Amino acid sequence: MTQTAGKTDLAQIGVVGLAVMGSNLARNFARNGNTVAVYNRSPEKTRALIENHGDEGNFIPSESIEDFVTSLERPRKAIIMVQAGTATDAVISQLTEAMDEGDIIIDGGNALFTDTIRREKEVADKGRHFVGAGISGGEEGALNGPSIMPGGPAESWETLGPILESIAANVDGTPCVTHIGPDGAGHFVKMVHNGIEYADMQVIGEAYQLLRYGAGMEPAEIAETFKEWNSGDLDSYLIEITAEVLAQKDPETGAPLVDVIVDAAGQKGTGRWTAINGLELGVPITGIAESVFARALSSSTAQRSAAQEGQLPSGTIKELDVDKAEFIEDVRRALYAAKLIAYSQGFDEIKAGSEEFGWDVDPRDLATIWRGGCIIRAKFLDRIREAYDKNADLPALILDPYFKAELEDLIDPWRRVVVAATQLGLPAPVFASSLSYYDSLRAERLPAALIQGQRDFFGAHTFKRVDREGTFHIEWSGDRSLTEY
């Protein structure tokens, strides 16, 4: 296979792996004036890309890793877009051997950040640079402008920055890409981005469920409601596409498409990783975790079927006894509140991860680059950036004066919606858990005091006191005297 006719001698960037994401990313680079080297383990995909899209820009196709590397200008820059795991490790090994000192290998897939930390060290030990870059926006974003979150050495960013800026989404003249931090920082931030995405999607689904089965609305009517919501505080990509999905008819039956889709949600792992890491860091990302569990429960089809056949008792189910328009507005406000909690918890996890791994991630950068290209892009990200501009050390995003004032208007509708969901017998795990999280933050006393007493009783785990410093234990099996350590 030879390079396309009339092209320059060497490529500024290369893409390995030409499935839809990799192919679209290569096309994006080419459309924006870059000569792009392309390689796929199966040459047929490389040929298909050149045959179908070779007129979109300058491509240099290769059928071997060696030819691919030779076609790149120095320092060589190659983005891997293959399946995460062993396939990625195999390509990294091939590129490391074929490349020279100072060349840059970029993993653009959804890799677990700890794998990226390991890979960065291994590649650095051989004199090459390794960059784990989170890329958000799906197939459309890869082609037309994603949000990009590269980690790795700062020196690599100096080389990569201009070429990544050329393909990233752009909002108000600012490219949606920036250097996140060392080694695994980019993939960590992308992981949490996806966790926020899980919570956002789940709570939107809960809002739909309440409108559908609480207010008795049909999908087409709910679609119009979401379109209206997308013009206000909830203006976001996910609200926009929700309206599109709900308005869609099944091409075969004419029924609402949402009614013919099996209600079992899939997942690729990033949301689960976010929840696991939240537990490891001790960060209460309750809304995100509940959204992961909700997907898992939806896919537990045999268990759900057995529960329905066994007719688990429902208790007394009440019909909606409020004005429909008022209920719709309550759901809108509750949705906004729960979305704010998801973002706040996500930023908490990023802050904790940054401190744990020494990355120095700037939340203002994330609020900036997530405004365009990515799945969780939303109007209120501008407000999030302003919040961190005013106070980069916010204890929690929702303690910013703007968001605190917003919540004053949202809290009563939010409570009413959670109560309504319970009375209607409709599951609302993210609405409810996010509200419990909010109330836990604002509570003067939590039942953790009792838990510490229990732990001291059965395990002598000791406890602290509110009235003086020190560590204490009650002699539970003896005279129940107080011992200070």
3D structure, described in words:
With 485 residues, the protein is an alpha/beta fold. The protein has 20 helices and eleven strands. It has helices spanning 20-31, 43-53, 65-70, 86-98, 113-124, 138-144, 154-165, 185-213, 219-229, 237-247, 257-260, 270-281, 286-298, 301-309, 324-357, 363-369, 381-390, 401-424, 429-442, 448-459; strands spanning 13-16, 36-39, 59-62, 77-80, 104-107, 129-136, 147-150, 170-171, 174-175, 472-474, 482-484. Helix 5 links the parallel strand 5 and strand 6. The radius of gyration is 26 Å and the shape is globular. It starts with 12 loop residues before the first strand and ends with a strand. The model is unreliable at 1-7 (pLDDT under 50).
Keywords for this structure?
485 residues, 9% strand
The largest sheet, given as strand count, sense and whether it forms a barrel, is: 7 strands, mixed
Radius of gyration: 26 Å
Number of helices: 20
Give the number of DSSP strands.
11
Which secondary-structure class do the elements indicate? alpha/beta
Stretches with pLDDT under 50, minimum 5 residues: 1-7
Output the strand order for the largest sheet.
Answer: 3-2-1-4-5-6-7
Mean pLDDT across every amino acid position? 95
Q: Name the helicity range.
A: 40-55%
Overview in brief:
Helix content is 54%, strand content 9%. With 485 residues, it is an alpha/beta fold. The strands form three sheets. The chain has a seven-stranded mixed sheet, sandwiched between helices. A two-stranded antiparallel ribbon has the order 8-9.
